[in-house]
Design brief:
Elements lengths: L1 E5 L3 H13 L3 E5 L2 H10 L4 E5 L7 H10 L6 E5 L4 H9 L4 E4 L4 H13 L9 E3 L2 E4 L4 E4 L2 E2 L4 H12 L7 H8 L9 H17 L7 E4 L3 E4 L15
Parallel strand pairs: 1-2, 1-3, 3-4, 4-5
Antiparallel strand pairs: 6-7, 7-8, 8-9, 10-11
Length: about 240
């Protein structure tokens, strides 16, 4: 999942960026409200962590602009101003939650997780395909009964494939979705290396060697050869 962090206090931004990345989110950061609008025109975000006091455009005005444009991305507002009027102003323009600085980091992360769960069908919160199962809440990934120990980038790749299991992803699209704007820009060979690592871990858990399929000249996908209805068996490599 991709989160936009809009915060002009770089100490706070660095701490939040590190904590959110450790939770396996892809995080883009900008300290400027107007720059945030530019980011939102290019990328689809699952949530926005938004400071109120910002250069360019303050957080209240930015949230109001988004809602007027029909953008319903969940917004968690941050502010050092602990008054009812400030909270009401933020909530009235469409913010989904409001946290006052200084905040407890674990509580803020829990609030982010709660925002990300909104709009999800709670009867089917798991991402499943064939014998793969990813739990976005606990961030556990299993193949059959075997838990996979994935790096943050491998986890993001797995989530990307499972959220759109019928899609072929080019290396460029993978780079856009799995690497944040603050990451060093990797080469497409980096994608190949992460795919190899993910395949190796899947195979060690008992998955077919080509569960992640290479469509030459196009990209990667979950191999439809191994997709089967519940209760059916597939032919392994």
């Amino acid at each position: 999942m991709r989160i936009l962090l809009v915060e002009d206090d770089f100490d706070i931004a660095d701490a939040l960026h590190e904590a959110l990345t450790a939770q396996r989110y892809t995080v883009d950061h900008t300290p400027d409200g107007l720059d945030a609008l530019n980011f939102l025109e290019v990328y689809d975000y699952n949530a926005i962590v938004l400071d109120v006091m910002l250069p360019g455009m303050d957080g209240v005005a930015l949230c109001q602009r988004l809602r007027q444009q029909g953008n319903l991305t969940p917004v968690l507002m941050l502010t050092a101003r602990d008054t009812s009027q400030d909270k009401v102003a933020g909530l009235d323009v469409g913010a989904d939650d409001y946290v006052v600085k200084p905040f407890d980091l674990d509580e803020l992360l829990a609030r982010v997780r709660a925002l990300l769960r909104r709009g999800v069908d709670r009867s089917t919160p798991l991402l499943t395909w064939e014998r793969l199962c990813l739990n976005p809440t606990t961030m556990d990934v299993h193949y059959a009964d075997e838990q996979l120990s994935l790096t943050p980038k491998e986890y993001s790749l797995m989530e990307l494939f499972l959220r759109q299991p019928d899609r072929i992803f080019s290396r460029g699209v993978i780079l856009e979705n799995v690497w944040s704007l603050q990451d060093d820009i990797p080469s497409e060979d980096t994608v190949k290396a992460h795919i190899r690592g993910l395949r190796k871990k899947l195979k060690a858990a008992g998955a077919p060697a080509q569960l992640i399929d290479t469509v030459y000249g196009v990209g990667y996908r979950l191999n439809p050869r191994f997709s089967c209805a519940p209760g059916q068996e597939f032919e392994s490599d």
